[in-house]
């Protein structure tokens, strides 16, 4: 935030920005109990195609950004595919000019039944000028986070594939320049893995030359060690997530088709319990557990029982119209329960492709005036192009 004034306590806020500590708060919607994690930038939709369809992607047709949404889709890239894409997403653009997410992705088809991808995601939190209580200049911070991914996928048959991705995560929020609660701050680092599967049916014929096919995908992402922002014992969960969905592509004729997508995703992170004044758990389960144990615990530890577990599921729907693989219109919607974050919004998208070059745009609209998003009324774009002039 350029030319902003903060006290040194901002370092403590930055180092704990994504802490999993959470207290239950009663609101008009009920018991507000949001699950928070470290490095939430890993969950931001990085490309404008998916961003224009309500943030769907685990079951959609494979493209250059499949590494993020479902690594298993890379095995179904078109013959000879070899592409590069660059995406840019302004963040909180209505408030500050210098917070943004940049995403560089590369994908290549190998042989007949496999593919691989590489990506770099960089999240800049802008520039922060620090001042103490007396207004004295204490220096400038430029917090940032990035992740480097690599993934490989192979078809197990003509219709199903399996993929694995590895990720290095670096979160430099406090830049090791001050102390927080008496502990030296440091950059958070971790490694994680994604495991995904993708099924795509053959085309089935309908009347009047029409045909359809369907796809199903599942992805377990960001499975890895916790992140620590200080030399204290405290550490935070990665945003481990399960995404599951299906899509149907309906081809009207040689040039026109539409795809309909529905997906769900859920954080595989323990739900914060209800504690008494002494910090003892009185409802739910203790969320101070190892990462792997937290994956299984996350399916049944909500203080509110089964109903609260279902409230933690986010629903994403999208639609895409495709004219001759050159013009695309997209729309989508995301629903999240009020007590778990209340992220509800519509999205619009447009795509243009000529030969090996393409450009996608996405725009987000909050569902109601009371629901806000860092991306509301913001135009995002993705530029992509093929590196070979062969069969794309």
Describe this structure in a few short sentences.
With 392 residues, the chain is mainly beta. The protein has five helices and 24 strands. It has a single domain, classed as monomeric porin ompg (Porin), CATH 2.40.160.
How would you describe what is shown here?
- With 392 residues, the chain is mainly beta.
- It has one domain: Porin (Beta Barrel), CATH 2.40.160.
- The protein has helices spanning 9-15, 48-51, 66-69, 291-297, 306-311, and strands spanning 5-6, 25-27, 30-32, 82-90, 100-110, 114-124, 128-131, 137-141, 144-155, 160-172, 179-180, 183-184, 188-200, 204-205, 211-224, 241-251, 256-267, 274-275, 281-283, 314-323, 327-335, 345-354, 357-366, 379-386.
- A hairpin with a 5-residue loop joins strand 14 and strand 15 (211-224).
- The radius of gyration is 22 Å and the shape is globular.
Class per helix and strand makeup: mainly beta
Strand content: over 45%
Mind summarizing the main beta sheet? 14 strands, antiparallel, barrel
Would you count the extended β strands for me? 24
How many H/I helical runs?
5
What would CATH call the class?
Mainly Beta
Shape descriptor reads: globular
Reported CATH architecture: Beta Barrel
Name the helix and strand elements from N-terminus to C-terminus, one letter apiece.
Answer: EHEEHHEEEEEEEEEEEEEEEEHHEEEEE
Distance between the termini: 42 Å
Mind telling me the CATH superfamily name? monomeric porin ompg
Task: Report the radius of gyration as a whole number of Å.
Answer: 22 Å
